[in-house]
Amino acid sequence: MNKQSKPILTIKLARGRLLAGVATGVLLVGGFFLTGQQGEPDAKPTLAVVSAMAGASPSGSLEQRVQLLEKLYNADPIDARNDPVWKGVPELNGLKVDVEATIKQAQKAMDGRIPLVAKQIPPNVTLNDLGAVPIYRGNPEKKQMALMINVAWGTEYIEDLLKTLDEFQVKATFFLDGSWTADHPGVAKQIVVRGHEIGNHAYSHPDMSHLDAGSQRSQITRTNEVIKKATGQTPTLFAPPSGAYNETTVKTAHGQKLRTILWTLDTVDWKKPPASVIEDRVLSRAENGALVLMHPTEPTRDALRTILQGLQKKGYGLVTVSTLLDPVRPLPTP
């Protein structure tokens, strides 16, 4: 099992005050960042500094405050599963707060902060254990969503999409058609330079379910090769054009070390409805773990700002597809 990222978050607690408690809802989490590698189940607990505002409550002991944090953040791991509707649903790590170690760290702190010591607990079953399965969503316990932008034609709206994503500090996953990438290697490179993830969208936008195994393999292999040449990156995710696939497609992609990715929520933006329709389709159906399908169209360009504002206001973390599928458990933010 590969090691994963250590959680680092900041919770500021005044030494002389007790958090008002879970029921009052006054805990305000400052943020959550991932660095380094996450430990195995028997690894040492990882250190996190938790930042929160203390409510107007009577003072309590350091131990009581740490025990409150333990109740807030402890969670059991969730196994990956092959769902009858959603197919491969990714696993999610559990979280275990080390109360004794946290108290010791807090006693050493000089600025009133409580450095929360915790570790991620891997589940027993992972996506890798499920084998070749399509994926339609992330784990529903993760308050994150991923924008997947399938690109097979045109370039005129991509720069505007990139500017809006930059403005909101959001990273998306662009699934690139191989022939498009061959024609526009500079644009493909610019997507990577801006920090976005690149996926494979086959070479000539075929209905993969109508191709034999050899032809399907060629579509995927040629696309990976041209994307690697243009961007320096080799995709690990495959989005079949139009969502058309069969068992051979998934197995072929899996054999080339790519996960087959579909979607939870479709904007149907290729029909070019008004931007307001696209906005409503996303914001009214937003949910934990959703994969949102988009294309570089004019109405999507016009709708993107409102979509990002709305999703962030609802508290969703907007991440790449790979991050959404990653088992690291993000801590809740207000």
From TrEMBL:
Residues 143-319 form the NodB homology domain. GO terms for molecular function: hydrolase activity, acting on carbon-nitrogen (but not peptide) bonds. This is Putative sporulation protein (Polysaccharide deacetylase family). It comes from the Bacteria. It comes from Tumebacillus permanentifrigoris. GO terms for cellular component: membrane. PROSITE patterns: NODB. Pfam families: Polysacc_deac_1. One of its GO terms (biological process) is carbohydrate metabolic process.
